[in-house]
Known about the structure:
The chain has 20 helices and twelve strands.
Amino acid sequence: MLRFAPSPTGDMHIGNLRVAIFNYIVSKQLKEDLIIRIEDTDKERNIDGKDKEILEILNLFSIEYKSVVHQSDALKYHQKIALQLMTQKKAFACFCSDDKLDELRQKAEIEKRPFRYDDFCENLSDETVLNTNAPFTVRIKRPEQNIKFTDLLKGDFDYAPFDVDSFIILRQDKTPTYNYACAIDDMLMDISVVIRGEDHVSNTPKQIHIRNSLGYDKEIKYVHLPIILNAQTGKKMSKRDDASSVKWLIEQGFLPSAIANYLVLMGNKTPTEIFTLEEAIEWFKIENVSKSAAKFDIDKLRFINRKHIEMLDEMRLSKILGFADIDIGKLGKIFLEEASTIKEIKEKISPIFAPKNSCEGFEEEFLKLKECLQKAPFFQDYEELKKYVMEQTGLKGKNLFKPLRYILTGVDNGPNISDIYPLIKNYLGEIIK
């Protein structure tokens, strides 16, 4: 199996989505199941409803998965296996208070060395542990040998026991810490490949150490994807960047197919620039993804989005715009010369149907034209309509075309009325009312 394991602690950002997409593609290529594991054991940071939001976004991007599990549901397994590790003397109860740990942390800071636990509680006798009533955490003993693994993108890693440390696996309330729960779940779920962000590289030796301590020797392959930088600032995309939020991109009118296209294209060798996820499954190679940070350029995404809108069936585009008419879909594509998102196209179409009471500088002409158009018979052709209006009102030149454009489109400029009219003629009654 493969797994996508988000935490319900905030909006899904593009880095998360990229991880989900790559897991989906590789699961299809390997013909292995993909599961969604909501990592919700940190109760204080969980936000109500974020797990549902994550699944809604995955469905929006047509990312198929076998099942959804919540990490918190496996609590009894996490506790049971921790107890097993303690019984085998591979983990131990730690009674050190937060104050004591802060003191050790400050000492390490003063001595300019990395903070590591001093293993004070590791050698306490069973009798001492039994007779101590203070709350305790459970720590896993540090490994005796180096932990080595190979990342499919970044190559070989080698961590000394000091780097891995005697880290906490169960908190005082006996809920599992991230690395422990993650390692146990990957083992229980028979995960074969882990694809995630490079901020998890230092977690990997800890998770391998937990599984080694349990005698689990199946090798899990790892791929740690480089971070995403803002192309404009050169800095890591953060929550302050609107474009880092998938929800924001969707609200701005970027199509899921275009976002997915760009996230696969970014920092990657692809045979073509514009493609669908289904097409990417045919040629995608995870090892071809760049080892360097990918740069997210919103203007590049706009270009790709425009291409995906162009590829949309006109009826489908019409429905996305809130209609059910091929003509409105065609109208939307006319505005692609000036717009690159669904939101921008809607902003171009909206004035056509908005109430229009006057036209600045052409107030009299506007009223005369409006009255004429309200009484006019239906014309299939714009030239015929124009001829009829000129005959009925006597208007010509800018006194005709300025207010006529405004009545029909709600704006002073834009594509030729001759191109727009055939697509809005069936709505004239509503437009001129």
